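Please study the protein below:
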Amino acid sequence: MANVTRDLVERASVDQTALITIDAAHARRVWTFGELADGARATAARFAELGVRRGDVVYTLCGSRGEWVLTMLACLRLGAVMAPCSPMLRADDLRTRARAARPKLVVADDRHLDVLAEAGLGDAVLPLSEWDVDPDADVPPAPDLPEDDPAFLLFTSGSTGTPKPVWHGQRYVWGQRLQAEHWLGARAGDVVWSTAAPGWSKSTRNAFLAPWLMGAVAVLHEARFDVEQRLATVRAEGVTVLCMSPTEWRMLLSAGDPPVLPSLRRLVAAGEPLDKETIGRWRAATGLTIADGYGQTETGHIAGTPPGADAPPGSAGLPLPGVTTRLHDGELQVDATTLPTLSLVPGTDLVDGRWWPTGDLFEQDDDGWLFFKSRADDVILSSGYRIDPVEVETALRSHGAVRDCLVAGVPDAQRGEVVAALVVTDDDAQADLVTALQQHVRTVTAPYKYPRVIRFVDALPRTTTGKAARGKGRDLLRSGD
């Protein structure tokens, strides 16, 4: 029995620096644990006034900012369930999530009010412009919560076209210490910046919770990726541990050789496969090897390169200490009893009653290092996003000019994969239709899912039973023929 906000934040030294936030206007604030504790209590009081109780779901639709942190801490204090949503979600995305769990409250940036109203969630919104919490309000007590009491609701896209809800218990938070120590590598005195935006499971666990578990300071920056701004922030804040997606590590090389960043002592990556060339260039320039890692929304972290280890180039790391894995017909499977952060989607069948099937194909060398090969299903891995081709196909078919379509991932040097589509249409103006279809997808679903490559065909490849032959379509898109 525990309470994360009470035991991790409120009992910390009140003068100890916990967090540095930089908002979209570049305003910087340093937060002590005392200030966060006061803010979390006041926010919990405001949420309670709005009817939020233990077990209720609270959505967030805002950037990496102080209110996002206080919302998470308030939910953890009350025993409410926080569901962080990407600010890029559209009305259909939000309606799908609401069918799984309708929120009691949505904390949202004002620019999202229209899309929330369109999704039918307008009556539950607390706009950031009306945040205004009262530090003198009566604060509800912080209950002791069992480890399986729900703390987070995250959504993952699989091969069905419908985002699947994953309910993580309180144990999910405390279980992050394993990866924080043995992969993220944070320690007391570090300044840790995990750049993943809210809505990613990696952000939920690594933006500040994992650093705090190790006694480190966390950095949050509410800004879109920009090479010069990213480098300036690392230098200005003296970041020592930098955790980014492989795409971001590659983009920092877009201007040439790796930049000089003398404060860094550990480089970390996860979310998609990390190529050997990027690892090699950073290592040659800095003497530091990017520590790759692997995990899933349902599992949290499974494997990673430990601090001080010399990983073989291209490896996703070793299984975390105490975590038992196996390769079954090439698929990585995890002993569900050995992973403290695993939460099973309802109805999930474990292999042999014990093994969680990741759906990812790996190879493993004699020393235990894991090497990602591919997905066992058709999910597209692009810039750290997992994109279900069925979702993109549904969005494309909702455009009046599209008679049929097939979506798959094609290799890309910077993003790992990008979304590509075969499209059947009766429209003769195909050149003009590309931009229209891309914009249409960006409008009806999260923009990162739009097809960057569109090829028009007279008919889709099909199986003998008349179904779209996804494998042949993927080969056709990848060949460019």
Remarks:
- The longest strand covers residues 402-412.
- The two ends are 60 Å apart (CA to CA).
- The mean pLDDT is 92.
